[in-house]
């Protein structure tokens, strides 16, 4: 019965078009603002969890590294699964990303979503997608969105217990063919992680309150653009939300400068491409990578445009991805 406490799952990364930055409660990882994202088919995490009665601590092995004691955020996450299932064993986590970890390509989103699905199944739980989203959120805010494919809306929620802070799918991947092309600038781990950055922004950015207050309108506009399948509108909103978030980051003390030179050069290149008639819109997260939203027919034009930017080291093109799912 060695397999009894073992399960594997794959979850796909997602990139927010309407951004999340700031927490209304840090312990439950409740977002201060809702968000809207696109799940990506070509960037994913595969995670296997094995609960083992002989282990005295949780272990984790990332990619091809040797297993080490799992950092607190993973053990605390597994504690939630142990509480829900009543099963007390420590676990061995083995996780592989098919893309660089912690460099602004949303590895925490796909990683914690895959962990939520694998760990609950290994512990004998069958959670609904919404329950999985609520669980994944406690590992990483953006992970709540990676439970679902296509375009996904994350609710900020109002409740203190976080039961209304979950994501839901608003447009499946096959209902609107959207593409994203990523220009990789630097794959080293970022210096300031999102939790610390969000804490600093809330404490010191002078327009943090207006960021939070204006977010519901941005989210509603995004939802309407998706409903109407209005690509131009969605793209404009995405670029605005990205720049607004980075404005907030820049105005934080100490200032959070996630962009590098090639990131800025690529923003200008995409705007120039758009001025020539190719509809493409950029977004950037807590790292230097640039992600460009576009329609399938413009794949080549966008890739060529990014490739021509000095300092873009790699291009990854992807379309919309599916729901997180178990692996055999
Ligand atoms: O879920 P976290 O803690 O990795 O935060 C994600 C924050 C951004 O990627 C910058 C924006 C977002 O909505 O994904």
Quick recap:
With 328 residues, the chain is α+β, with helices and mostly antiparallel strands. The chain has helices at residues 72-85, 107-122, 129-137, 194-204, 208-227, 231-250, 261-275, 299-307; strands at 6-18, 23-25, 30-31, 35-52, 59-62, 68-69, 90-97, 151-154, 167-171, 179-184, 280-283, 290-294, 314-319, 325-327.
Textual characterization of the structure:
The radius of gyration is 19 Å and the shape is globular. The model has no long low-confidence stretch (mean pLDDT 95). Strands 1, 4, 5, 6, 7, 8, 9 and 14 form an 8-stranded mixed beta sheet that branches. A 4-stranded antiparallel beta sheet has the order 11-12-10-13. Strands 2-3 form a two-stranded antiparallel sheet. By secondary structure, it is α+β, with helices and mostly antiparallel strands. It has helices at residues 72-85, 107-122, 129-137, 194-204, 208-227, 231-250, 261-275, 299-307; strands spanning 6-18, 23-25, 30-31, 35-52, 59-62, 68-69, 90-97, 151-154, 167-171, 179-184, 280-283, 290-294, 314-319, 325-327. The longest helix is centred in the middle third of the chain and has 20 residues, at 208-227. The chain binds (3R)-3-hydroxy-3-methyl-5-(phosphonooxy)pentanoic acid (PMV). Residues 16, 19-21, 35, 108, 140-142, 194, 285-286 line the site of (3R)-3-hydroxy-3-methyl-5-(phosphonooxy)pentanoic acid.
């Amino acid at each position: 019965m060695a397999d009894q406490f073992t399960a594997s799952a794959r979850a796909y990364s997602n990139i927010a078009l309407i951004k999340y930055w700031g927490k209304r409660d840090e312990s439950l990882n409740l977002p201060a603002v809702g968000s809207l994202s696109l799940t990506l088919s070509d960037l994913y995490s595969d995670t296997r969890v094995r609960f083992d009665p002989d282990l005295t601590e949780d272990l984790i092995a990332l990619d091809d590294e040797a297993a080490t004691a799992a950092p607190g955020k993973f053990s605390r996450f597994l504690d939630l699964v142990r509480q829900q299932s009543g099963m007390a064993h420590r676990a061995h986590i083995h996780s592989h990303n098919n893309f660089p970890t912690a460099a602004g390509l949303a590895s925490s989103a796909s990683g914690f979503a895959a962990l939520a699905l694998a760990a609950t199944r290994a512990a004998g739980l069958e959670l609904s997608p919404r329950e999985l989203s609520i669980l994944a959120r406690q590992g990483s805010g953006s992970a709540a969105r990676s439970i679902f494919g296509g375009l996904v809306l994350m609710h900020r929620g109002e409740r203190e217990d976080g039961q209304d802070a979950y994501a839901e799918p608003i447009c499946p991947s096959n209902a609107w063919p959207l593409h994203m092309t990523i220009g990789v600038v630097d794959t080293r781990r970022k210096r300031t992680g999102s939790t610390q950055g969000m804490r600093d922004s809330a404490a010191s950015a002078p327009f943090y309150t207006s960021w939070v207050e204006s977010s519901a309108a941005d989210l509603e506009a995004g939802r309407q653009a998706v409903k109407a399948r209005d690509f131009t509108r969605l793209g404009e909103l995405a670029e605005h939300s990205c720049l607004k978030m980075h404005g907030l980051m820049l105005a934080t003390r100490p200032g959070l400068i996630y962009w590098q030179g090639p990131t800025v050069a690529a923003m200008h290149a995409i705007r120039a491409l758009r001025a020539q008639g190719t509809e493409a819109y950029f977004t950037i997260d807590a790292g230097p990578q640039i992600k460009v939203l576009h329609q399938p027919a413009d794949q080549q034009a966008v890739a060529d445009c990014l490739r021509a930017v000095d300092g873009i080291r790699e291009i990854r093109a992807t379309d919309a991805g599916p729901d997180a799912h178990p692996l055999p």
